[in-house]
Amino acid sequence: MGSHQDTVGARIGMWLFLYTEIMLFGGLFVLYGAYYRIHAVEFIGTGQELDMVLGCVNTVILLVSSFFVAASVTAVRRNSTKGAMAFLAGAVLLGGLFLLNKYFEWGHKFHLGIYPGSPGLGESPPGRIVFYGLYFTITGLHAFHIVMGMVLLIVCIAMTGLGRIQKERFLLLENCGLYWHLVDLIWIFIFPLFYLIL
Amino acid sequence: MDPHIQSYKKLGGVLGVLLVLTAITVGVSRLDLGSLSLWVAMVIAGMKSALVLLFFMHLKYESWLIRGSFLMTIGVLALFIGFMFWDVAFR
User: Fold this and answer.
1) Which of A104, A119, A154, A175 has minimal CB crowding within 10 Å?
2) Sign of CA dihedral B54, B60, B61, B67
């Protein structure tokens, strides 16, 4: 365990997994692009119904949380166990805050009668139905990834506390960190595509 | 063991640039650029993701195998997106 060869192999394995994630969301973005070409006017009109401020806040939350996770790797490598655990706890808290915002955002939309298959949405023009379909699918799948990322970060906090992640052995933290950064990366594209289009 | 421990200062600097780019993309989206606005937003998102990849995900310090296979993945995705627009444009 912990030999140089293992480290390289585990990293390649993690990146291969990340490629499948990129293609998963990439496929959905291709779908977005195709429908944008067809329903550009309705996409732009519907995009303005989303709360841009909430989208901005969630973008800042994820960027800062990504910084915390990157900083936790630096802390572990500098032998600061407490620092690493604090950074990771900060990232988990920010992930929770992100989900809380999503809860209010989706809740508000449900309150307005906007959810997949809702009667009110069914009477809308096709572009608006497709936009909300993509919105709920993509942000829902992304929120699920946030939940999984938070679980992984909590495991990393525990492993750091138990001394299983430390200065000479931090591969698990690095790989879980890569996952969290990827989830942030996907949001970097979701944010302008849904919240900023004009 | 690779010697690339990234300082807090450097990581914080990357975060600062990411936040500035977020502010820029929000500001630009309020201007009326027509069909150009989506492309401007995508270019800024591309710059932001490059920063996350290079520094937070330390792709800058990875082996050629990971860097090469990553670029190949993005290349395949770009091909998909390109063919999709090509297809939709000529219907």
Assistant:
1) A119
2) positive
State the smallest CA–CA distance between residue A196 and chain B in angstroms.
6
Domain ranges of chain B: 9-57, 61-91
CATH code for the domain in which residue A67 is found: 1.20.120.80
Whether the complex's predicted ipTM is more than 0.90 is answered with: yes
**Short-list A74, A96, A94, A95, CA closest to A83:** A74
Selected for mutation to probe chain A from B73, B76, B83 (highest A CB count within 10 Å) is: B73
Find the domain containing A177 and state its range: 4-196
Judge contact between A155 and A27, C-beta under 8 A. Answer: no
Provide the domain count of chain A. 1
How far apart, in whole angstroms, are the C-alpha atoms of residue A133 and residue A115? Answer: 8
**Cβ <8 Å between B66 and A30:** no
Alpha-carbon distance values, B59 to A96, B14, B18, B79 (Å):
27, 14, 17, 22
Phi first, then psi: give them for residue A71, nearest 5 degrees. Answer: -65, -30
pLDDT digits (tens, 9 = 90+) for A92-117: 999 999 999 999 999 999 999 999 98
Nearest to A185 among B14, B42, B49 (CB): B49
Mutation target among B38, B65, B76 for the A interface, most CBs of A within 10 A: B38
